[in-house]
Amino acid sequence: MLTNTATRYGAAARFFHWSIALLILADLALGLIGENTPRTAETADRLQTLYSVHKTIGVTVLGLAVMRILWAFTQTKPVPVHPERKAETMLAEVIHWMLYGAILIMPLSGWVMHSAEAGFAPILWPFGQDLPFVPKSEDVAHMAGAVHGLSAWVIFVTVALHILGALKHAVIEKDGVLSRMLRGTEAGVEGASHASALPPALAAMLWIAVVAFPFVVPLEQHEEVASAAPMEQAEITSELPVWEVEQGGLTITVTQMGAPVEGSFANWTAAIAYNDESGTGEVTVTIDTTSLSLGSVTQQAQGPEFFDTETYATATFTGEITRLEGTAHEAVGTLTLVGQTVPVTLAFDLTLDGDRATMSGTTALDRRDFGMGAGYEDEGTVGFGVAVATELTAVRQ
Ligand code: HEM
Ligand code: HEM
């Protein structure tokens, strides 16, 4: 029989229980393996497959969970088998409600994280990569990730208690509770009452606390960014008029698994001397490489194979500015990055409005010139080209 009665689970409830249980356990295992795999060139492809499978299984769980919950609304809930044991029945039911919450919150938080971050491991079907109402935002991805990680611990504890309980019934008490879920046999006495409305209310409160926790307790990464020390500007000894940067942005775009991933440096300065009559000048840009964020691959990008920010915390570009024609300029110089100094030309447009200059420029780098990502020999995982773009406004001093 498909439907439940007061003393047994129907085939539909059992199908939902076991399919979701299996997929959740598989995803917990994949998540843990992924978390404990070092991020290196050798593991990159394996991790990409692992997370793609993890996400696809997770989204499948969400679909099944929605159907399961809708189905459960139409069904009788089988009675507790030992209603006289009030505390035990209460605990079992709180755990059931916690697990119901888990099968929604776990995949939803994962999906929001995936949709908010750029790059890395697509879900293995074309739709659903981006969710409506979820912006591409590191903060959103970070918060969703925190909820995901914390919820994983809640599931570990509740599933462990749930399985221990089931084993206790099967091995010690041999009371038919497990086979009621396994084979759909009968157990319990019709008319026995459930443990009131307290369990769902308790489970809901616990979940609200778990989801709210990362929003209430300040997270490490936020503090780090907020406390980034202002950079010291390079000395300009030029006779030319000096310009001070008011505001600006410095972004890089890399190609990861064939898709563009944009990142930016939060902390950098530029010392600029420029004579607008001759159209000549010089510029020194100092970049705090530890302030790089690059979607979900920030850690790898900052790691020893790429920017190696622990050893090389700054990168410097120095160049001579020449006006080409009209607003078109170029700065020809060198970029020193991860200990390598490479000739680089930055092409930019400069427009002046009184004492305020607006500049936007681009250049293309090849990571191999700096020995970056030597382990990624072809472009399958990480492309060779890195597009750099900058925009700023500066004021004549
Ligand atoms: C059944 C649902 C799911 C379970 C049980 C689950 C479980 C886990 C676990 C245990 C981890 C490792 C803990 C951690 O890194 O904090 C993890 C990480 C992760 N999960 Fe899930 N997950 C589920 C669904 C999803 C879905 C649907 C997505 C995306 C569409 C997703 C994306 C991720 C990502 C990107 C990570 C890595 C997070 C990081 O390293 O910062 N998960 N998951
Ligand atoms: C080896 C693993 C598992 C075993 C042996 C197991 C066993 C059981 C048993 C025997 C019941 C019936 C309890 C009763 O009749 O009162 C049950 C119910 C339930 N189980 Fe599991 N379970 C397992 C994994 C999971 C997992 C991973 C979840 C996570 C979602 C889960 C969620 C539930 C829920 C929500 C119920 C309440 C019944 C319903 O409304 O569908 N179980 N489980």
Strand content: 25-35%
Helix coverage percent: 40-55%
**Helix/strand/pairing class, anyone?**
alpha+beta
The largest sheet, given as strand count, sense and whether it forms a barrel, is:
8 strands, antiparallel, barrel
**Average pLDDT over all residues:** 90
Please state how the strands of the largest beta sheet are arranged side by side: 1-3-4-6-7-8-9-10
Number of distinct helices: 8
Supply the number of structural domains: 2
Q: Measured on Cα atoms, how large is the radius of gyration?
A: 29 Å
User: What is the straight-line distance between the termini?
Assistant: 83 Å
The global form is elongated
Total number of strands = 10
The small-molecule ligands in this entry are: protoporphyrin IX containing FE
Order of helices and strands: HHHHHHHEEEEEHEEEEE
Low-confidence stretches: 222-228
